[in-house]
Amino acid sequence: MTLDRKAAINVAQVLSEALPYIQRFTGKTIVVKFGGNAMIDEDLKNSFARDIVMMKLVGMNPVVVHGGGPQIGDLLTKLNIESHFVNGMRVTDTATMNVVEMVLGGSVNKDIVNLINKNGGQAIGLTGKDGKLIQAKQLKVTHQTPEMLAPEIIDIGHVGEVSAINTDVLDMLRNSDFIPVIAPIGVDEEGNSYNINADLVAGKVAEILQAEKLMLLTNTAGLLDKKGNLLTGLSTKQVDDLIADGTIYGGMLPKIACALDAVKGGVKRAHIIDGRVNHATLLEVFTDQGVGTLITGANDNHTTL
């Protein structure tokens, strides 16, 4: 099929706009957290996979970390295992942890690997157990009421936090044609498995790898102000101020805190992007406008790159 003149000019403009971004990020590591609607809608899944393959083909080093909460919930329901939540986190006993490993380390991880491979990439699925990639410890949750003299420690089972990332496996894959796809399951020194929030894992992986970008796909347009307007470019200080004045609250707080910690830890830029938009990842990496909120260090003025 031959493009008409107008369509051909549009294609040329898109490629021209992408060129400085390709030059800027060739050889750089970009950590992408894949979750939300982008993991459920077939069109969004395929556009995401093509975006990741494209990034690798032009010389970038994408690392994918994925969630899978809804898929875990569905299988628990089918198995008649009741879920309980504390502070938004699923209480994870041994039976629930077995399901988490089946879903995250098995079906979801392999589906994403297959999706990337089907779209022309070479993906390899990993959990934190592979090569001791994600070393974890149990997450301690506390609760305190005004009448309590000391906070109560609540045991939520096999829910963990990252204590260390072993980069040996990732370094080997980054220096090859393969794309790592990581399920957020960690392991401690005794071999106990832990379910870890995928945003936190992505943030820690980005920080340890000193990634150029951390990209968190969400089910929202990005970070909004109190009037509902999208905030496109923010410094870490501005984000701290927005948390302090209550603009950032509720379910967005953990995600923003993850992005903030990563940037303060050396990641060049963090992006909260709208995973409901086709090719959201490419739009954020290769275009001037992007599709979400960019968070940079206090001294970084490159808000478009």
Keyword list:
alpha/beta; 305 residues; disordered C terminus; 16 strands; Carbamate kinase; 39% helix; globular; single chain; 8-stranded mixed beta sheet
Q: How would you summarize what this structure contains?
A:
By secondary structure, the chain is α/β, with parallel strands linked by helices.
By DSSP (H or I, 4+ residues per run), the number of helices equals 9
| CATH architectural category | 3-Layer(aba) Sandwich
Low-confidence blocks of residues: 301-305
Mean pLDDT: 86
Any idea of the CATH class? Alpha Beta
According to CATH, the fold-level topology is Carbamate kinase
Name the strands of the widest sheet in spatial order.
5-10-2-1-13-15-16-14
Q: Could you tell me the strand content as a percent range?
A: 15-25%
State the end-to-end CA separation: 34 Å
Give the C-alpha Rg.
20 Å
Number of domains: 1
What structural class do you assign from the helix and strand content?
alpha/beta
Instruction: Indicate the percent of residues in helices.
Output: 25-40%
- Tally of strands: 16
Shape: globular
Please tell me about this protein's structure.
An eight-stranded mixed sheet has the order 5-10-2-1-13-15-16-14, with helices on both faces. It is built from nine helices and 16 strands. Helix 2 (42-57) crosses helix 4 and helix 6 (198-209) runs parallel beside helix 8 (252-264). Strand 7 and strand 8 form a beta hairpin. It has a single domain, classed as Carbamate kinase. It is α/β, with parallel strands linked by helices. The longest helix has 25 residues, at 94-118. The radius of gyration is 20 Å and the shape is globular.
